[in-house]
């Protein structure tokens, strides 16, 4: 395969929530009418290009919005924690992807148990993860799909071209596993990326399509070619050979996406404010902690304490316990935010150790 040189790097450290005594610092209010309109618009754009949508629930972390995404045509969801995935399964969502290439063997047993009850695939970034993953699946009597996680050919975030073929062959031939395809994501990490979001999406999608063709040329089916990103979605949609677009932020959106031109300010379906004046400093600190690279520094909250769109929705949701949701008739509901991380098993008599949340 004639591919650009790519060097694999370790996955970014998952975000860890703020201490729980700060979790009540912010109130977050969702406009459900806007969120529903955003879902329908995003799905229509994908379906017009023959793409399915996989909803990454990190962009809202609620059961009700995930169900709305499925009802709008999403093929399934992505989530990073097995325990959270089971909550979505209980809500009737049966096509689930674990969207982080975890390396902890204790997690594989959780995934294998989950896979008995749904169609499950997990991101894998190196063939070395496969033996333990397969052993867990066989022990549970389940089957786990493997999605090779690649980069974009220039700033690789996962599987190198040299490892891709070996990973696919090994996954296809190992009992307990099945090769489900590949997945790519390239984050926007530099200030100038806001202006280059179409090119970033298109470049990543082209590389994914190229890798899929390489696998097929070696006799390996590659049913899923998934590329992720809300701000880069237009570029992803422009490339032939992609089967699925994954995205998280598109139901609620945020101020950073509006500043990048990925949505209009009036599309943003969530606002945040300090819970009380007493919480203002903590609320400002939390919001300032979660910005896109192109967003200016300085205060986020206005002096009068009025609600504002959050700078960056996905990491912010790890800091919030509940969404206040206003529907079309003005009725207000309170939806819990699913943030509980999976927990590593411990010896009897010791406290459990939670894994990192993401």
TrEMBL record:
- All copies of the Alanine racemase N-terminal domain together span 30-234
Pfam families attached to this UniProt entry: Ala_racemase_N (PF01168)
The annotated region (Disordered) lies at 334-358
**Is the Isomerase keyword given for this protein?**
yes
- What is the organism field in this record? Streptacidiphilus cavernicola
Give the E.C. number(s).
Answer: 5.1.1.1
- Annotated Low complexity bias: 340-350
What this protein is called in its record is Alanine racemase
Q: Which Gene3D superfamilies match?
A: Alanine racemase
Q: Could you tell me the superkingdom of the organism this chain comes from?
A: Bacteria
Record-linked InterPro entries: Ala_racemase_N, D-amino_acid_metab_enzyme, PLP-binding_barrel
**PANTHER family reported in the protein's UniProt record:** D-SERINE DEHYDRATASE (PTHR28004:SF2), ZGC:162816-RELATED (PTHR28004)
Alphabetical keyword list: Isomerase
Gene Ontology MF: a single term: alanine racemase activity
């Amino acid at each position: 395969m004639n591919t650009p040189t790519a060097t694999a790097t370790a996955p970014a450290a998952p975000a860890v929530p703020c201490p729980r005594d700060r979790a009540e610092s912010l109130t977050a209010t969702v406009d459900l009418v806007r969120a529903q309109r955003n879902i329908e618009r995003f799905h229509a754009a994908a379906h017009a290009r023959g793409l399915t949508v996989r909803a990454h629930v990190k962009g809202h972390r609620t059961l009700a919005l995930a169900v709305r995404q499925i009802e709008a045509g999403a093929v399934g969801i992505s989530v990073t924690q097995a325990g959270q995935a089971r909550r979505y399964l209980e809500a009737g969502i049966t096509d689930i992807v674990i969207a982080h290439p975890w390396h902890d063997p204790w997690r594989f047993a959780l995934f294998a148990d989950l896979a008995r009850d749904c169609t499950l695939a997990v991101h894998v970034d190196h063939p070395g993860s496969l033996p333990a993953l397969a052993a867990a699946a066989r022990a549970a009597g389940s089957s786990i799909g493997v999605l090779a996680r690649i980069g974009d050919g220039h700033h690789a975030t996962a599987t190198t071209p040299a490892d891709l073929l070996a990973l696919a062959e090994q996954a296809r031939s190992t009992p307990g596993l099945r090769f489900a395809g590949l997945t790519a994501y390239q984050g926007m990490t530099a200030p100038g990326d806001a202006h280059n979001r179409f090119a970033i999406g298109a470049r990543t999608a082209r590389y994914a399509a190229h890798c899929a063709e390489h696998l097929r040329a070696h006799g390996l089916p590659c049913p899923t070619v998934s590329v992720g990103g809300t701000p880069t979605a237009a570029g992803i949609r422009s490339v032939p050979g992609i089967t699925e677009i994954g995205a998280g932020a598109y139901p609620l959106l945020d101020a950073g996406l509006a500043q990048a031109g990925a949505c209009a300010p009036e599309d943003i379906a969530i606002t945040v404010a300090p819970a009380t004046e007493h919480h203002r400093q903590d609320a400002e600190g939390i919001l300032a902690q979660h910005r896109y690279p192109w967003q200016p520094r300085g205060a986020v909250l206005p002096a009068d304490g009025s609600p504002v769109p959050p700078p960056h929705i996905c990491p912010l949701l790890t800091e919030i316990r509940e969404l206040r949701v206003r529907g079309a008739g003005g009725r207000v509901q309170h939806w819990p935010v699913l943030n509980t991380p999976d927990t590593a098993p411990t010896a009897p008599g010791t406290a459990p150790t939670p894994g990192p949340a993401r």
